[in-house]
Amino acid sequence: MEVDLKRGETLPININMTFPSLPCDVLSVDAIDMSGKHEVDLDTNIWKLRLNSDGHIIGTEYLSDLVEKEHAAHAHDDHKDHHEESDHKIELHSFDKDAENMIKKVKQALANGEGCRVYGILDVQRVAGNFHISVHGLNIFVAQMIFEGSSHVNVSHIIHDLSFGPKYPGIHNPLDGTMRILRGASGSFRYYIKIVPTEYKYISKEVLPTNQFSVTEYFSPINEFDRKWPAVYFLYDLSPITVTIREERRSFLHFITRLCAVLGGTFALTGMLDSWM
């Protein structure tokens, strides 16, 4: 182990999760680091797979940062002439129509028991931060009309894979295979992750830079009067210590010593058996 001296590198986050009770149209992925910067950008590849009630894939969609889109939509209004009432009415009518279509589509998906599988790679800065998967990308009024309250948002999820870099022989990711299904009241899940930078050195001298991590889980329920909306949060921090794992081959002398020990033990045991017989 030694002090981690890396600077200015990105941290890859591999995500593969299933939300069996939420359609893909309402799910959004957002990542924020300590500086407050959104890291879900053009370098990020996140895909959503629509699932039917049996878990079979029925559609695919590329997911950019829905939160950024929402911010852009609000910022767009600041540069307009608000005295143009006719244009404003047209936009309101368009928004109402789009929102109405969105609500009908999502309600139909919920009635059909649709789910969503989210997978891909987030490239974030190598500093502490968090990413979360939720319905925060929706307009608050649209979300209220779809779910009729935050307590009805079911964030049950299955984590198929969550890792921070490529896998090396013998690695164990503690969240792989995690299943959290809500039967009663909804709430938010928080996973506090401590990332340990790791280097795996093969016998061939090839070095694989990656990360391993430990995790602590916390669930906070939400009641009907709570203004917060349920989400699945992953809050991560990096350890200042790097762990180096090396593959080493035993020496030939060690092999000869063990071979002699095995042969000697075999000779002694057969001698004892012969005496007993």
UniProtKB/TrEMBL annotation:
Pfam families: COPIIcoated_ERV (PF07970), ERGIC_N (PF13850). The chain crosses the membrane at residues 255-273. One of its GO terms (cellular component) is membrane. The lineage of its organism: Eukaryota, Viridiplantae, Streptophyta, Embryophyta, Tracheophyta. Residues 1-39 form the Endoplasmic reticulum vesicle transporter N-terminal domain. Residues 100-274 form the Endoplasmic reticulum vesicle transporter C-terminal domain. This is Endoplasmic reticulum-Golgi intermediate compartment 3 isoform X1. It is found in: Membrane. Keywords: Membrane, Transmembrane, Transmembrane helix. Belongs to the ERGIC family. It comes from Olea europaea subsp. europaea. It is a multi-pass membrane protein.
